[in-house]
């Protein structure tokens, strides 16, 4: 889980904690394996051969000599490697193309993978994937990049480095949208000031008999409406 976090978030907030946890887990596993081997050797040398049903297992002997702590918050004391040395090794690994991540002086899974890749590419046998002066000296003797450059999907190779691919800027459409004719502002500068005048200019005399409402559009383009309560009385016209 910590390796996956470091791979996905190399600059995340919990990078230092994740690397510390990885070191603790790896050192604890190494010490447990060594203790298991020692117990097995002592049991073989000191105890007589017994039936397999009477012989305690290695796990039982480990529990007897080193019971597990019930305190989940207990963290074993881990000696930190020299950060200046680690930072120099990380810098050299990145120089030769074996990506060790950020040069922060913390030796974690990413740095070990980079060192293992360098050892395989250069055909160098290392006693352990741990920082040391010999490892730094071997890296400095490698003048040219040896590991292939692998960039993420959002990156590309340029001058031996992975750089982010910039998305093309979106251009604004060039064609202006013309508003519909009905939405254009009308001034009606040629219309009469009074709708009554517009009605007389629009309707012929004697038309509209028997009607109480009439609507029309003056030739200037402006509409109007005329109303009367009953037939026989004058029309009352107003602009729409």
Tell me the span between the first and last alpha carbons: 74 Å
Beta-strand fraction estimate:
5-15%
Give the total of beta strands. Answer: 5
User: Which class best fits the helix and strand makeup?
Assistant: mainly alpha
**Overall geometric form:** rod-shaped
Radius of gyration: 44 Å
List keywords for this structure.
single chain, 240 residues, mainly alpha, 3-stranded antiparallel sheet, 7 helices, 9% strand, rod-shaped
Give a verbal description of the structure.
The chain has 240 residues and is mostly helical. The chain is built from seven helices and five strands; from the N terminus they run ααααααββαβββ. It has helices at residues 2-8, 15-46, 58-65, 83-95, 109-122, 133-141, 195-202, and strands at residues 155-158, 161-164, 213-217, 223-227, 236-239. The chain has a three-stranded antiparallel beta sheet with strand order 3-4-5, with helices on one face. Strands 1-2 form a two-stranded antiparallel sheet. Helix 1 (2-8) packs antiparallel against helix 2, helix 2 packs across helix 3 (58-65) and helix 4 (83-95) packs parallel to helix 6. The two termini are 74 Å apart.
Helix and strand arrangement:
Layout: H1 2-8, H2 15-46, H3 58-65, H4 83-95, H5 109-122, H6 133-141, E1 155-158, E2 161-164, H7 195-202, E3 213-217, E4 223-227, E5 236-239
Antiparallel strand pairs: 1-2, 3-4, 4-5
Helix pairs in contact: 1-2, 2-3, 4-6
Question: How would you sum up this structure in a few lines?
Answer:
The protein is mainly α. The chain is built from seven helices and five strands.
């Amino acid at each position: 889980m910590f390796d996956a976090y470091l791979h996905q978030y190399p600059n995340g907030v919990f990078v230092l904690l994740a690397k510390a946890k990885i070191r603790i887990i790896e050192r604890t596993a190494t010490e447990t394996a060594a203790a298991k081997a020692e117990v097995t050797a002592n049991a073989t040398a000191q105890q007589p051969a017994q039936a397999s049903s009477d012989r305690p297992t290695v796990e039982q002997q480990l529990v007897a000599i080193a019971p597990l702590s019930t305190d989940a918050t207990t963290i074993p004391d881990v000696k930190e490697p020299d950060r200046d040395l680690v930072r120099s090794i990380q810098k050299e690994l990145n120089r030769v193309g074996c990506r060790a991540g950020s040069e922060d002086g913390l030796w974690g899974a990413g740095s070990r993978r980079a060192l293992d890749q360098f050892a395989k590419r250069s055909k160098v046998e290392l006693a352990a994937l741990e920082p040391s002066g010999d490892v730094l000296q071997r890296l400095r003797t490698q003048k040219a990049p040896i590991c292939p450059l692998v960039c993420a999907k959002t990156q590309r190779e340029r001058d031996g480095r992975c750089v982010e691919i910039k998305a093309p800027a979106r251009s604004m459409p060039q064609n202006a949208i013309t508003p519909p004719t009905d939405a254009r502002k009308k001034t009606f500068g040629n219309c009469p000031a009074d709708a009554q005048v517009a009605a007389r200019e629009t309707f012929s005399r004697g038309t509209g008999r028997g009607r109480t409402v009439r609507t029309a559009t003056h030739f200037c383009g402006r509409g109007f409406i005329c109303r009367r309560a009953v037939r026989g009385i004058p029309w009352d016209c107003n602009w729409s």
